[in-house]
Write a structure and sequence with these properties.
The chain is α/β, with parallel strands linked by helices. The chain is built from ten helices and twelve strands. A hairpin with a 2-residue loop joins strand 5 and strand 6. 46% of the residues are buried.
């Protein structure tokens, strides 16, 4: 590990891999983290084609790369590729962070920790005893389930377009009595205190077809995706009377801080990051 002022060593190399990835704010976030934590590193974004993930990781590792963040749609392939797994990656069965150490690929999942910190610390929400709906059954949802269950909601329902995927995910958490799974059609007549969109629909500008009755009095809606303008899911939430809404920019920052700490051994200061990134998105028109 090289500090910011160790000019004799080349900067350690990190990157985010995904598809799409050109929109990613991760390079901007980690560059700022490195400045604040006095670490010397280089962080880039790498677009990976479907079917080319393992080779891309191998090429990066072989070229001396130190670690990777993994985003859509490679979190479960990353889980399969990792040779050693953290406890939270084991529970999620999905990996969003890889570290290369002495030829071994280590996998972690920082998504859930980042989500919970944003919900409970940054937004001040209380999840204990609440009814929570998690939309989606991919890698992002997998990473969120265990940390959400650790907060003891009254119930946590996982709903997905393809109900088989939701039920498969439910089976991986067989001992979680508060956890239920089903399809979007099964939600009719239900109401929740917190709704979390973990699908990639907002990334593609798509709206989810959801019952209008889902929002309980005082309900919050949270989209793991982020943009300069409200996502389709958050627009739906506003139309149907959500008490509060937030996109996933805070989660992005907090999960990135978890990854940085796992790689570098120092937790970066995240203060003011969401505000500065929000201004950057507005200026960029993203």
């Amino acid at each position: 590990m090289s500090s910011l002022f160790d000019f004799d060593a080349p900067p350690d190399r990190y990157a985010v891999m995904g598809n799409p990835v050109s929109h990613s704010l991760s390079p901007r976030i980690h560059t700022e983290f490195a400045r604040r934590a006095r670490q010397r590193l280089e962080y880039t974004a790498i677009q990976v084609d479907e079917g080319g993930f393992a080779q891309a990781v191998g090429n990066f590792q072989g070229a001396g790369g130190k670690g990777l963040n993994i985003t859509v749609p490679f979190k479960q392939p990353a889980f399969a590729l990792a040779e050693r797994l953290s406890e939270r990656a084991e529970r999620a069965r999905a990996v969003n962070t890889l570290r290369f150490d002495a030829g071994t690929i280590y996998g972690d999942n920082t998504d859930g920790a980042g989500l919970v910190r944003d919900l409970c610390v940054n937004l001040g929400l209380n999840i204990t005893g609440r009814r929570v709906l998690l939309l989606g059954a991919g890698g992002a949802a997998r990473g969120a389930i265990a940390p959400l269950l650790d907060l003891h909601p009254a119930t946590l329902v996982v709903a997905n377009r393809h109900v088989d995927r939701a039920r498969e995910l439910r089976s991986d958490f067989a001992r979680a009595d508060a956890l239920r799974a089903g399809g979007f059609d099964d939600l009719e007549g239900e109401a929740f205190d917190l709704l979390i969109n973990a699908t990639s629909a907002s990334l593609h500008g798509e709206a989810l077809k959801l019952p209008a009755s889902l929002l309980a009095s005082g309900a919050w809606c949270y989209d793991m995706m982020y943009a300069a303008e409200p996502t389709p899911f958050l627009k739906w939430a506003a139309v149907y009377g959500a008490a509060g809404t937030s996109d996933g920019l805070g989660m992005l920052v907090e999960q990135a801080a978890e990854s940085f700490a796992w790689w570098r051994g120092v937790r970066p200061d995240t203060s003011g990051m969401v505000r500065s990134l929000r201004e950057y998105l507005r200026d960029r028109g993203a």
